Every structure is written in C-alpha cells, then in structure tokens.
Amino acid sequence: xxxxxxxxxxxxxxQELPLSGAAMLELLVAVLDRGVPFxxxxxxxxxxPFVKDGxxxxxxxxxxxxxxxxxxxxxxxxxxxxxxxxxxxxxGQDGCLIRGDAVPEGDGLVPMANIVGRVSRVERNxxxxxxxxxxxxxxxxxxxxxxxxxxxxxxxxxxxxxxxxPNRRSV
Length: 171
Hints:
By secondary structure, the chain is an alpha+beta fold. The protein has a single domain, classed as Umud Fragment, subunit A (Ribbon). It has helices at residues 4-7, 21-33, 137-146, 148-164, and strands at 38-41, 56-60, 72-76, 83-91, 96-99, 108-110, 115-124, 127-128.
C-alpha cells in the first residue's frame, strides 16, 4: 500500500497536478524533448485577452525552427529563471524581444536557447481561442510592441464593451 505522500505524485483524470514554477519548467522541457505536446493552465493576466488566467494552453517543441514574429512562446526568463509565456514582438540574431500583450514592460531580449516551445493552441471553457494566434499574430505583436494595445485598444474596448456585449457579465 502506498503512503499518502506517494498518492500525491499521481494525477487522477479531471484533477490537476500542482507544480512549482521550477518543476513545471523542468517537466515542460522534458516532455518537449520527447516531441510530445505539453498542456497546462495559464496563470496570470499578462497575455489577456488572447490568453486569460485559467485558459488551457498547449506548448509544442520548436524543433529546429526559430520563433516567428507574433508567436506566443514559453521561455526561461533570463533574469528570474522562471517559466513565462509571452509574445515575440521582434526577432533578431541574438534572440527575441518578448512581451506580454497586457503589460507595460517587456521581458527584454531573450536568447534563443531560453525559448523552450511555442503555444500551438489555447482553449477557454473547452473551446479553442483563435484570435491572436493565427495570421493576425504579427499585427498583434506590432501593436503590443508599440504600446498601442495596452494604452489605446484595451481602454477603448473597456469603454465600448458594455455597448457591444450588453448581456455579458464583466470578467
């Protein structure tokens, strides 16, 4: 018979395996190294509205390809060493300039070696989220990099949202 501590190591279908950021990053890298997609719940609001807190995201290996402008990538932050999922807003030879869509400051230049995978799918309430993940991702990257998204588009949307979606509850 297993001890209660050993039981905590296994995930029952429909339940979550709580991991620290460091453990999540290690597991993500190990799974992607095997060529298998990795799914987990996003935490935080830095990518809102395209990726919201609680959305399920799927990260795939980049293999031998480079991230593209507008890709949402999982990476090891060069300063904090934490797992972060943000958008590529500029691609250069030394790395990628990366930034969350809804944050005032970027993550800086992230070396290619720190980028562990690309978000291939976002699900919200069991349904795929496509906006911000398709061909328009390069435009979203430009708007995010310029600060227009945070300072113009989000405030404008908050202003007109009650008119466009009058019967929806604010989130």
